[in-house]
Amino acid sequence: MNLITTAEGFWALLLVLMTVIFGLEKKYPNSKVFKVIPGMLWLMLAVAACATLHVFDPNAEGVCNAQNLMYTTFLPMMLIMFMLTCDVRDLIKLGPRMILSFFCTTVGVLIGLTVAYLLLKNHLPAMGWGSVASVAGSWVGETINMRAVAAVFGVEGTDFAYAAVMDTVGFTIVLAVAMFIIPRQAKWNKFFKASTDGIDAIAVKINASMEAHPEVKEAPTMLDYAKLFAVALTGTAVINWVIPYLNFVSFLNATGWRVVLGSLLGIALGLTPLHWSKGATNVANVFLYLSLCVAMSYSDLSTCTDAPWFILLAIIAVAVLYVVWLLLCKLFKLDAFTASVGFMANFGGTSSAPAIAAAYNPNWIGFGILLGFFGDVVGTWICVAFGYFLQAL
Q1: Is the pLDDT score of 18 beyond 60?
Q2: Are 218 and 278 in contact (CB under 8 A)?
């Protein structure tokens, strides 16, 4: 028996689950429950469990309307608010070696996933390529990019669950390796004949730019939230008005156009004073988690029979990735800091790259923030193209 059939009930369920799980994670941050499996994954598993147990009716008109609202309205709003927090002009300050470091990891991710997919594709379901393309979004950018790529290719339910599984396995491995490298940076730099000369000078420029607007660290007010929603909703309305005139491009459906236009509009707004809007990331994160919940609401855990193959795929992909990455680090003589932050900017984006940067030197945290934003900006485009490549394979 399906208990929930209305849009209001569906959204209430998702928000209650989000509140309870993230509330517990905040209250018990040192609990092994959340150290082994992060709150975001617990949230997705909880929604999938509700779908499996038929807590809501996926075919009910109200539930379908709620799910569709995610794609028509909340998805572009999320992208607009995320992207306006990044001023692409600041990315120039990173310098060529930091950008090079980022793309060394990106190349490794794409080669690793391609090799692993070719080895195991006969054991994967029909949409296996879509799951792999989706996780590439997270491994080149972060969760927002994974969700955007999945939306473009229609990766939902069980197929999206497989992407989440691969993401968790991969991130767990690479974070452990990143932490392993930190205390051994002197040996790394000696082996790779690398130098950190010049990093301090660039860090000063980056930090000066960030410290020029201390007001963004203040708590958002009601007016700040009203301004954010006004901008995001207006932009979404314009995007939805324009889309019917753009459907002549066969390889992008309406959702794909919303991802493209929402991202471009957000990047453009990031060049205006709206870049310094307070609360944008917090609000965008709410929509991101709701989007992940909607993706999992199509999932029936009893059908996830191919999970072991996707776990193996993730392990193979990461192994190949490290081989490619280390060869490129040797070729370009990348120091431990530059290599590690570029690596984690791919895998964890703005959530983990700053933490890794700070572990090397607190004055270098700006590198992690900006390089994480760089992954947000380019991750979706690279991995949508990669998805079409996998589909052709």
Answers
A1: yes
A2: yes
Comparing 16 with 40, the larger pLDDT belongs to 16
- Give me the mean pLDDT over the 88-115 stretch: 86
Would you place residue 251 in the very low, low, confident or very high pLDDT band (cuts 50, 70, 90)? Answer: low
Per-residue pLDDT band for 324 (boundaries 50, 70, 90) equals very high
Q: Would you state the structure tokens that stand for residue 208, as one six-digit string?
A: 């000066």
Partners of 56 in the beta sheet?
A: 4
Sign of the CA dihedral with 285 first, then 291, 297, and 298 last: negative
Give residue 136's pLDDT: 93
1 pLDDT more than 60: no
Q: What is d(CA 372, CA 73) in angstroms, rounded to the nearest whole number?
A: 25
Nearest CA among 322, 323, 361 for reference residue 343:
322
Distance CA(304)–CA(47), nearest Å, equals 14
Quote the CA–CA distance of 95 and 97 in Å, as a whole number. 6
* Measured distance CA(336)–CA(322) in Å, rounded: 14
- Tokens 């800091």 locate to 337
In this structure, what token pair is assigned to residue 345?
């900017």
Comparison of pLDDT for 332 and 41, the residue scoring more: 332
- Cα torsion 299, 389, 243, 275: sign: positive
Specify the residue for token string 């990891």: 105
| Cα–Cα distance for residue pair 343/283, rounded to 1 Å | 27
Say what the pLDDT of residue 249 is.
61
Mean pLDDT along residues 141-149: 83
How distant is the alpha carbon of residue 45 from its chain centre?
A: 18
Maximum distance among all Cα pairs of the chain, rounded to whole angstroms: 65
Average pLDDT, integer, range 307-314: 90
Task: Let me know the angle formed at the C-alpha of 114 by 108 and 115, rounded to the nearest 5 degrees.
Answer: 90
Which amino acid is present at 3?
L
Backbone angles phi, psi at 56, to 5 degrees: -130, 155
The whole-number average pLDDT for the span 165-189 is 84
Residue 267's alpha-carbon distances to 78, 79, 270, 272, in angstroms, are 12, 9, 5, 10
Sequence-distant (6+) residues with CB within 8 A of 139 are 109, 113, 167, 170, 346, 347
178, amino acid identity: A
